[in-house]
Design goal:
The complex is a heterodimer of chains A (about 325) and B (about 525). Chain A has 16 helices and no strands. With about 325 residues, chain A is mostly helical. Chain A has one domain. In chain A, α1 packs antiparallel against α4, α1 packs parallel to α8 and α5 runs antiparallel to α6. In chain B, the strands form 6 sheets. Chain B has a 5-stranded mixed sheet with strand order 3-22-21-18-17. Chain B has a 4-stranded antiparallel sheet with strand order 5-4-19-20. Classes of the chains: A mainly alpha (about 325), B alpha+beta (about 525). Chains A and B meet through α1, α5, α6 and α16 of A and α2, α9, β7 and β9 of B.
Chain lengths: ~325, ~525
């Protein structure tokens, strides 16, 4: 397939997945915040820090408050990772490959974007963002389902899934990280460790509570981390995402499992192997935050290798004026 | 054996119901509809529905007024969700709009369509022979049937296309011809679009929406289907492949997502199942055109390009073009890639050449034109020019090389100052202008606000030419000038569209043969 189309499918899926995860991330933050009676420092600052967009936030809003963080993460088009921005980018990518995806996919992503656009125009949204967040999650599930059911599971589909699972691995790591950071922001007398309520909130934020219960039963900090990071079968666990990504990469290159040859395959294969054999206690002892930070930078390396191997040698994007200039007949 | 027992019967109880219609049901009232002094598409002078419209008129007049508006909104919402939008520039991101759509269809009866179809096939053949001649021996110019200086001074005349031999001798694979009806109801050709005519995707989308909007009338009216277009287009594109290529790689070339017709480009590529490429995906190497894929370069054999000639190849034409492919003209001239349409076809839709099309038809085919031209005054001719200059307030003046409804003067509606401006322009560049009488364009009932009013319409059918056969899509884009009294139907100037129902002939199967072959 065209390199440009492959890149657009990849980014369409990444941005769509990111929109859903930002909604999940904000949802859990809002919920945890309600359980923080009195805090030292500013917990909303910790939320912004976990997004990785601190500088951009400070420039636009200054100090972090509930309302400014909600706005920043949902409908602010000036924020590159707000839900609205992600959907706009997902839709622009989808638009540039409308012939490569199914009409149903295009229609779904278009409706999704239009829904969020309506929320963005509503002044009441910031006071009560829960409906928006629920709608975003549901629309995302629909999009994934429509994609699964209406698109041939060939090269383009695999580029899409590759983007989706790499994004999801990254986002799961950020959600876990943010939750831990919030716990740290809590006053000492309330307790500095994850208790049952926190753990169930964390699991629910990635729709994992029920599946966790089936697998491990009682809530336990190290088991919960093991489930979200190392479980082989749960669709939002980091290990599961890495393995699915590996599958898609193989399908794209057509290489057999004995002979990984491209650089992205090598990097992702190594990373997936690391998670296949990792031990929860070692991760926790070495520091969960440091571990997740390192994972995020390794995922960036995989992304860069994918770009170099499959999408490169693209000249500068064409200026809009000349595209418009074609005489209308 | 397990028997399934039914549940104990319950007393029949009426379920509580919400009141379904809060608004009173006022049936749509045609008595207030004013056909006016124009040829009305739906009603004759005695206010009776014309042939083919009976069922539609009956359904509409039985429909509560609010219901029509509700269906209109539903249709608009469906188009928005389908993303059938065009970009509005100079606005913020997301300022894209659907092309205004009117849910009252325009009906063309079978016998009317038969004439249109024959006329379009005749015109397509003649214009194709004309273009081929112009870029080869130019017999018609030598014989004086068309003045040489008119052809060679046309800005769309492309000297670089001289000697090109497109596969099968076909230059214009895709064309859209604009037809209008005058006060007498007769169809006239208003202009030919032989470069990159757009709008066919609206025909297909409008139809999809109309089937949901008026399913019963649609079914009973025996409307001919339009959905064969993408497969017919693909057939033509595959047919015109370069010699020696067994299964051609066909692509659609778009300027990119910022182009206002982008959604049509991607739609057609999608429906044909071919790649949609931008110039940056293509390159010329070793005398062939290649596209960049995730597995290296792949050869391209046929390009349905939606880019103007001037931008096609920065090496051959405009050096500043960013949407073209450097060196592609050499490959085209060598016959190693086919372009649809071929470069240089614009020479035949120059508005001055238009005036000579009846002569062109007679010259090549020895036939009288089936569809008449609108009488046209060519300003480069001294006698005609002086007639135009002294009758500006009665004529429509058009610039020879503008499209989209730009560069026009509608004399009867223009101020004296505007007339003076055009008079000066005509004197300065007579070659660039033609003039025509203002036709009393036919009108069709159109939903304006909450009631039906007459609005002026035209009709753009689409024609595919693959060499042996000419296919006329039984349908077309009916464009409607939504502004009251306006004659300009172009989408850039407040125009909208309607679905066009071409009815099957009595006795013919509604899903009849895909097109006329000659």
């Amino acid at each position: 397939m065209l390199s440009r189309a492959a890149e657009s499918v990849y980014w369409m899926s990444r941005y769509a997945e990111r929109a859903e995860n930002v909604a999940r991330f904000l949802d859990v933050s809002l919920e945890v915040m309600l359980d923080l009676p009195d805090t030292r420092g500013n917990p909303w600052g910790a939320v912004v820090a976990a997004t990785g967009d601190e500088a951009g936030f400070a420039e636009r809003y200054g100090a972090a408050t509930r309302d400014s963080v909600v706005r920043f993460l949902t409908v602010d088009l000036g924020s590159p990772n707000s839900i609205f921005s992600c959907l706009q980018l997902a839709r622009e990518n989808a638009r540039s490959i409308r012939e490569a995806i199914s009409s149903e996919m295009w229609e779904q992503i278009n409706k999704w974007y239009l829904l969020v656009r309506d929320f963005a125009a509503s002044p009441a949204m910031v006071d009560d963002p829960h409906e928006l967040l629920a709608v975003v999650k549901e629309a995302s599930h629909l999009f994934v389902g429509v994609t699964y059911l209406t698109m041939t599971h060939g090269e383009a589909w695999h580029f899409g899934r590759l983007g989706r699972v790499l994004e999801r691995a990254d986002q799961t790591s950020r959600i876990v990280d943010a939750k831990e950071a919030l716990i740290d922001a809590r006053p000492a007398d309330v307790g500095g460790s994850l208790d049952g309520i926190d753990l169930s909130a964390l699991l629910r934020s990635v729709s994992a509570l029920e599946m966790y219960r089936k697998r491990h039963g009682p809530l336990d900090h190290s088991q919960v981390i093991a489930f979200l990071v190392l479980d082989k079968w749960f669709p939002r666990s980091i290990r599961h995402c890495l393995e699915k990504g590996q599958e898609s990469l193989r399908a794209i290159t057509g290489a057999s499992s004995e002979a990984p040859c491209t650089r992205p395959e090598r990097l992702l294969g190594r990373l997936a192997a690391e998670y296949e054999y990792a031990v929860t206690e070692e991760i926790l002892d070495a520091g969960l935050h440091e571990h997740l930070d390192l994972l995020q930078s390794k995922l960036n390396d995989v992304g860069a290798a994918i770009f170099d191997t499959f999408f490169t040698s693209r000249p500068e994007p064409i200026i809009a004026e000349e595209q418009e200039a074609q005489a209308a007949q | 054996m397990v028997t399934v027992t039914s549940r104990p019967g319950r007393p029949a109880k009426k379920r509580a119901r919400n009141v379904e219609h809060a608004t009173p049901e006022i049936p749509l009232d045609f008595s207030s509809y004013e056909p006016g002094l124009f040829y009305d598409e739906m009603f004759d002078a005695g206010r009776r529905p014309r042939g083919g419209y009976d069922l539609l008129a009956k359904t509409l007049s039985a429909l509560p007024e609010a219901d029509l508006v509700r269906r209109q909104r539903a249709a608009e919402r469906a188009l928005l969700h389908m993303g059938i939008t065009f970009n509005v520039y100079g606005h913020e991101h997301g300022a894209e709009k659907i092309l205004p759509f009117d849910l009252v269809p325009r009906v063309v009866q079978a016998h009317e369509w038969a004439v249109i179809e024959r006329g379009l096939v005749q015109r397509a053949r003649a214009l194709n022979l004309f273009i081929d001649d112009v870029y080869h021996r130019a017999r018609i110019l030598a014989d004086g049937a068309v003045p040489r200086e008119i052809v060679e001074s046309a800005t769309s005349f492309l000297p670089g296309a001289r000697g090109l031999d497109p596969p099968g001798g076909v230059w214009v694979h895709v064309s859209g011809t604009d037809l209008v009806r005058d006060g007498d109801g007769r169809y006239y050709v208003l202009e030919d679009n032989l470069r990159c005519p757009s709008g066919v995707s609206y025909v297909l989308h409008n139809r999809q929406v109309m089937k949901r909007t008026f399913p019963k009338v649609f079914e009973a009216s025996r409307v001919r289907p339009v959905d064969a277009y993408p497969s017919e287009l693909l057939r033509v594109l595959q047919h015109v492949r370069p010699r020696g290529v067994a299964s051609p790689n066909v692509v659609v070339l778009t300027p990119g997502p910022y182009n206002s017709a982008y959604s049509e480009h991607s739609f057609l590529a999608q429906q044909m199942g071919v790649e949609l490429v931008e110039a940056r995906d293509l390159s010329v190497r070793d005398g062939f055109v290649w596209m960049r894929t995730t597995r290296g370069l792949a050869r391209v054999d046929v390009i349905y390009r939606r880019i103007d000639d001037a931008y096609l190849d920065p090496k051959a034409f405009r050096p500043d073009s960013m949407v073209g492919v450097p060196g592609i003209m050499d490959v085209v001239l060598a016959g190693r890639v086919a372009l649809a349409n071929a470069p240089g076809t614009g020479v035949a839709d120059d508005k001055v050449i238009y005036a000579y099309v009846p002569a062109i038809i007679r010259y090549y085919l020895g036939e009288d034109p089936i569809l008449p031209n609108v009488p046209t005054f060519v300003c480069s001719d001294e006698k005609q020019r002086s007639h135009v200059l002294s009758n500006l307030d009665k004529l429509v003046v058009k610039a020879a090389n503008e499209s989209g409804g730009y560069g026009m003067l509608i004399g009867p509606q223009a101020s004296a100052a505007d007339c003076a401006i055009f008079a000066n322009r005509i004197r300065a560049n007579p070659r660039d202008y033609i003039a025509q009488p203002l036709l009393a364009l036919s009108r069709a009932p159109t939903l304006i606000g909450e009631s039906l009013e007459g609005r002026h319409v035209d009709l753009r059918p689409y024609v595919l030419h693959g060499g042996d056969e000419v296919f006329v899509l039984p349908g077309g884009l009916t464009r409607v000038a939504l502004k009251k009294g306006s004659y300009v139907v172009n989408s850039s100037q407040g125009g909208g569209t309607k679905d066009t129902w071409v009815l099957a002939a009595l006795g013919a199967d509604a899903a009849d043969r895909p097109g006329a072959s000659c």
